[in-house]
## 1
Amino acid sequence: METINIIDTPKHVNELVKIGVWLTDKRSSGKIAFLQLRDGTAFFQGVVLKNKVSEAIFETAKKLRQETSFWVTGEIHEDARSKFGYEIQVEDLEVIGESEDYPITPKDHGVDFLMDHRHLWLRSSRPHAILTIRNEVIRATYQFFNQEGFIKIDAPILTGSAPEGTSDLFHTEYFDRDAYLSQSGQLYEEAGAMAFGKVFSFGPTFRAEKSKTRRHLIEFWMIEPEMAFMHQEQSLELQEKYVAFLVRNVIDHCKDSLETIGRDISVLERYTKTPYPRISYDQAIEMLTKSGMDISWGTDFGSPEETYLADQFDQPVFVLNYPKAIKPFYMKPHPTREDVVICADLLAPEGYGEIIGGSERAVDYDYLLDQIKKAGLDPDEYSWYLDLRKYGSVPHSGFGLGLERALTWITGEDHVREAIPFPRLLNRIYP
Ligand code: 4AD
Ligand code: MG
């Protein structure tokens, strides 16, 4: 007899199989017990008929407590009434680990309670579905960039640089000197692009932002591609192709998970069509002021502004060329305007805000050195980065997609904390 996973049961109809499972819920009467089972790969039902098993097994089945682990042996049958479509007709049960009173019951719990029990909550169907989709986004990311001829260059986590500004750095000690946790791998990816052409990184990044919003994590994962010999317009084409590819793959490979969380696939379909609309920062300001919002040129957008702008389109929208004063030092200056840089943020529909930040990079040594000084950074810390402009500097562009922001949008969740297994938030580093 084969030991299999629930996900593979459709290939074993009418066969006797053995599966290691946990109990999520149960219901029983005098003659029949319905066991809700999970094994990590999927959720399905076990049926125990009193007249088909020994008295002892039926009694064991009736007494099983939530989250008890056990081996279940039985025949796989089709079950058109259930969502999964198959069930197991139980013949034998062998308890592996008893369970104490499980804190997460099928009733409603508050968010703090669930987050305090995140290590257990991961077992429930909703987080399970969201994190399954996260895995698909990661898988599709590697597929996409491999297909496009990129190679993965890993950026360090411990660094001496602050590409995204010094206000939200996580400080740490590095033996007898200071170091910071990475805010972005970008500067290292730029070095990688000069060595390999097209590169990307995927790793954790850290921002000590005192923001308690639905969009901010303290630790989040970013995908950062960087392309040599590429101007901003080609980078935007790559970005929309990538995002559409992610959504396409989630629709095609995560139907069950999307159904579990109640995400409307017809809405997601809209995001698989490219090109995405593009507006300039100037146009965005005009749209916002016309709508009666109190914002002037030169100000960065907050959540209400991003939501309003995104609501004017039914696809993600690129906002191009923000004021130089509110963007990092490394962005390419506009060829004819002093006040803006060649960059774009991609705003997700449905109020999810910025999911990508990217730009063409400044290539001129003197300009960049000047910008580094103006940003209050120590040029010595960046001399390696400046070297990239000394030895065959070329036009290049790149961007960063926040995995959890993108996943929150794709899954339609309310809060970015749902999109990562163990969120680090302003007030949470447990569990
Ligand atoms: O716009 P950001 O700060 O851009 C960079 O870090 C660039 N160096 C990227 C690059 O060009 N290689 O961050 C990029 C993305 C944002 O668009 C957002 O999706 C996500 O990272 N992000 C966050 N996600 C969750 N919590 C936070 N606190 C985030 N801050 C940024
Ligand atoms: Mg940004």
Note: The first strand starts at residue 2 and ends at 3.
## 2
Amino acid sequence: METFQALILNNPDELFAAELQSLPITALPEGEVLVQVGYSSLNYKDALAVTNMALVVRQFPIVPGIDLAGVVQESHDERFKPGDRVFATGWGLGEKYWGGFAQYARLKADWLMPLPDGLDEQQTMQIGTAGFTAMLCVMALEKQGVTPASGEILVTGATGGVGSYAIVLLAKLGYQVVAATGRAAQLGDYLKSLGAVRIITRLEPTKRPLAQPEWAGAIDCVGSQTLATVLSQIHYGGSVATCGLAGGGDLSTSVYPFILRGVNLLGIDSVMQPLSQRELAWSRLAALMTDDRWQVMQSRVVRLDQVLEISPQLLAGTSHGRTVVAC
Ligand code: NDP
């Protein structure tokens, strides 16, 4: 193929523009491996990038899309050969480097991994950065000694991509998961099918630094006042994995949960995780996502030309589950 379709973001003279373009293969940036992209996925960060709602993109023009999976076409690195099925998440794709919302991508070999055992391209992208992040959160809680016997685990932003995977993974590992959501009436049954034992409404802001201890651990996708409230409700010695800011990037709290209850706040970043952690997380994801879990996890597949129209829904919190992009 001499030309390919790509979503391009640009800001000439600070005038942001996003459009699907047909480009020659020669327009791709340098890299060791040329990949024909089969699927990408639409993450919260991608929705921010394509709507220009936050400073996600650090270099224009750019192809957004922080995730991609596809087939190697050309490789100048001995780890990959034409025909290999590969994927990449993070590493600055769709932020600093051209990412997955295109039919072709040229990448550094260091960013690529073989598809996880037993998963195809579409499943890998259904998991994508969201599922990977949820797995990293679970692993962080485990490392702090949070076990299924410790007590209930709270997941906030429960109906989103990270939240949905957090519930599935925790439940599959035997944890008692409580889902906090703004959409209990519409999506409570969905959250229970994922494995939540109880559904609660979104947490109210609190001024109290310490409240009744309720949770042995938590995975927080929301940030801001929600995270402050979560911290005030954690058991003595419990842990909170913080990964998101769907409710805001600020955090106003006090030292009391930390110095009086020994609470651990665990920061989770999916973008720059080293390869060893990625391999571990993805092998666990592939094993935990059994057929019955694939059946309950809701996702939709959209076309590349629908990304611009669908992104505002993600930011408005009116979509749920995962959005896979067929390239
Ligand atoms: P989604 O948009 O799929 O889900 C976010 C969920 O948060 C929504 O479904 C909604 O759940 C809840 N929510 C949305 N708006 C608000 C609000 N104003 N106040 C409270 N809750 C809200 O996003 P993802 O799951 O993909 O990502 C979640 C967060 O994690 C994002 O902030 C994203 O940037 C971050 N993230 C961070 C990563 C990292 O490496 N640290 C990697 C991946 C994501 P409900 O209606 O059920 O309450």
Note: The chain has a mean pLDDT of 96.
